[in-house]
Amino acid sequence: MHTTILALDLGTTTGWALRGSDGHITSGTESFKPRRFEGGGMRYLRFKRWLTDIKQCADGLDWVVFEEVRKHAGVDAAHAYGGFMAQLTAWCEQHNIPYQGVPVGTIKKHATGKGNAGKAEMIAAAKARGITPVDDNHADALALLDWAMAQGGVA
Q1: Residue 130 burial by CB count (10 A; 0-12/13-18/19+): exposed, middle or buried?
Q2: How many distinct structural domains can be found in the chain?
Q3: Residue 59: which CATH number?
Q4: DSSP string covering the chain, please?
Q5: pLDDT for the residue 2
Q6: Between 20 and 30 A from 53 (CA), which of 10, 39, 91, 113?
Q7: Cα radius of gyration (the chain)
């Protein structure tokens, strides 16, 4: 029996990777782009609903890890990230699920050996582990999950 871990690269396109209790890994990306005629908070409600769906499909979560970003290129990205992080941490508290933010440099160094690796290097690192990510968000989530499993899979 394995610890069930959900790893998230938060953003409008959220990268995710899940190791189930059977050790099987599923992963991908989910878009939370605002939709036409939708209020500004709807993306966050869709995010919370998606988290609940993941939790139900996994038959529970033991640990959630997310990429902890300290700098953003733009104000919009920073606001979106803050909204997703607030929703995630409140949702984890509500469901009594331990969670941990992991600095970007820690994830990059774990995956590539370089704390300042670029998007292409993160994708190449995932491919070297035998996984072809759909984009850099997916690659980051896979690297984060690998980091979490290397920690022993527990918070």
Answers
A1: exposed
A2: 1
A3: 3.30.420.10
A4: -PPPEEEEE-SSEEEEEEE-TTS-EEEEEEE-PPPTT--TTHHHHHHHHHHHHHHHHTT--SEEEEEE-S--SSHHHHHHHHHHHHHHHHHHHHTT--EEEEEHHHHHHHHHS-TT--HHHHHHHHHHTT---SSHHHHHHHHHHHHHHHTTS--
A5: 84
A6: 39
A7: 15
CA distances from 104 to 36, 48, 83, 94 (A): 32, 23, 18, 26
Q: Which domain holds residue 84?
A: 5-150
